[in-house]
Fold this protein.
Amino acid sequence: MANEARYLYSVARTGENNDHVRLGNIGIEKNEVYIVPFKDIAAVVHACEEKPYRTEDRKLAEDWVLEHSYVIDQATRMFGTVLPFSFDIIIKGNDEAVKGWLSRDYESLAGELLRMQGTAEYSIQIYCDPAYLEKMVLVHNQDLQDLMSRIENEPKGKAYLLKRNLDLKMKDRAFSEAAKLAEGFSGKIKPLAEELKVAGKSSWAEEKYKDKKLVASFCCRVSDEAIKELGETLDEINGKEGYYVRFTGPWAPFSFVSLSGTGSSEEG
Amino acid sequence: MNPERESCLVEVLDRLLTKGAVLNADLIISVAGIPLIGVTLRAMIAGMETMLEYGIMEDWDKESRELYASQQTHLPLLLGEEVIYKTFGYLRDEEGMIKCWVPGVWNITSQRVILWVRTPGKVLFEAPLEGLRLLRVPSTHDVRKELELVYPEGSARISLTERDEFEQALREAATAATQAADGVAAARKEKEIIIVG
């Protein structure tokens, strides 16, 4: 039989009386999820073999990831904000090994839990009508307006190249225009958030935003008290002509949890 | 407005596979050397553009994630330089053990011709437009056509589907760059860009 190991979902502040807490068979492949406590914190785990979850079956892999996500949601519901771990982090050994890690890294884990307390991660995407964005790019760039009128008077071949040049420039300026807008939005959102990060551009979009241009994408960590005001600020942006705001959450602080230096099995 | 607890599958995958805390130590097993999850899944969160690189990057460990997060995604331009034309193409690599065509995006700027690879953000080739000469050479490929770029420090064989357009754009850019650099010699320099074959 393969060696014992523990699949790690999250670390939570469970309080001192945390013996025998069970979350049920909600883990990956219906494994029983339970907590390994140390002092007032605990690791949320299931027992597994010492090998990573690997598959080329896309559907199965998606199921695993969704199950992992579900456990984090349930743990958050039970214990408040948790430190979410990435998919497929497996600790060698049994509960004692997990406990050993918690005790060695107690300070940084407890510190990070305290920092996250009473806050959650939210995701904000601000979309714009492409026609509206183009209009603004042209208003702010006289040279593009000139180039546009030049194209009309050139022979076909030259006009084609100029058009490609114009398209590239439009794309480039639209990018700077969007960056300017994003900076303005982040200026409004930042004061209301504990932390704010500009999220990377991704290749997908929800159906209703498919024909819109994403001008700003943030993830921010916001305290429970500030969330109403953030909603009002986003309402203002959403109410402007040409803008659409997508606001989702609360999520576990995936983008903000930082445990650099933890996880070493060495003492100290 | 109130936040909605809605999340599409790709968002969940992105969060769980590329974010969240990671332990990088001998305490855990799923680290370097072991692909954590199927290539198809990674490709899905990455989008088509980076699919190729994901196929190559079999180890989706912490280091790969950090590399991916830190890489430059835009071609670094010089002061006052602007991209005039770009198209997908190849550069012949004769230096390595295996002679091969290296793919990337050919950019013609107001000052240089550059082969740029978005992942991991890298300039594979660059040459100034000034003093650049172009030679058409017989193609070794069915669809793509080839060009030899001759520049002061050497020469390079490149291959593109849209060679004719690329060539025209490069000739115009080189002429403009030469004119800008040396107004008097512009007419003479233009003649140096010869076409053979």
